[in-house]
Design brief:
about 240 residues; alpha+beta
């Protein structure tokens, strides 16, 4: 039977993190136990790290020797996870944060160095592949601009709606969205997993392609019709 615990600064969390760790979201993560597997799901704003690999709004299996960091400073001990999963009726306990050496609690935990950000969003080759995907060009963002942004959690491109200034900057904004759109959308909206993210972005790109091809076809038809009318008038 699957069991679930919550982690965050919210008082109702099964593992309650001290308010002093403002880099930790109120509802930062869910942890599931099912058939001997423990799954960590980040649902936060600032993301988490598992063994120095960034995990942001996605799921990953975790193990007792893993170093799990919420935000950039709070290290979640395995003992806190084990206690919360094993004793579901236990009242939430405020955790101050262990040092890297093990489950030692204390207020000085915030002084430890944050983990190195390797740029990966998962372990091994999968993380490297995700990073490459996020740094690739986004045709949907480039073509649809602020419309794409509204549906993907990226709202600043709405500045194009400002009269004159927005219209002048529209092309530059769309180019910037094409370059950075994947990264901003991945961080700006909750996704079930990275496959879901890719599926949605692919759909936007396909619609951009359909509209682009359709506009070319209509333009050709319009030119043919125009010259046909001119030829008929001159004959």
């Amino acid at each position: 039977m699957e069991r679930k615990i919550t982690v965050g600064r919210d008082l109702s969390s099964d593992i309650h993190v001290s308010e002093s760790y403002d880099g930790v979201s109120r509802n930062h993560a869910n942890i599931y136990y099912n058939n001997g597997r423990v799954i960590f799901e980040d649902i936060s704003t600032n993301g988490s790290f598992v063994n120095n690999n960034s995990v942001h709004r996605t799921k990953i299996e975790i193990f007792p020797n893993d170093v799990i960091t919420l935000g950039r400073h709070f290290v979640l001990s395995w003992s806190a996870i084990d206690n919360a999963l094993s004793l579901s009726s236990q009242k939430p306990t405020e955790v101050k944060g262990p040092a890297y050496g093990g489950p030692v609690y204390g207020d000085n935990a915030h002084q430890m160095q944050p983990p190195v950000h390797p740029g990966n969003y998962n372990n091994g080759n999968a993380g490297a592949n995700i990073e490459r995907e996020l740094n690739s060009w986004n045709w949907g963002a480039f073509f649809f601009g602020w419309i794409w942004g509204v549906f993907n959690g990226v709202y600043w491109p709405l500045v194009v709606l400002i009269p004159i200034v927005g219209q002048i900057a529209a092309l530059i904004i769309n180019i910037v969205l094409g370059i950075k759109g994947n990264v901003w959308a991945w961080k700006g909206k909750y996704w079930k997993d990275f496959d879901h993210f890719k599926k949605v972005q692919k759909a936007w790109a396909m619609w951009a392609l359909y509209i682009f091809i359709g506009s070319i076809v209509l333009s050709i038809l319009w030119v043919i019709l125009f010259f046909g009318v001119i030829a008929a008038a001159l004959s």
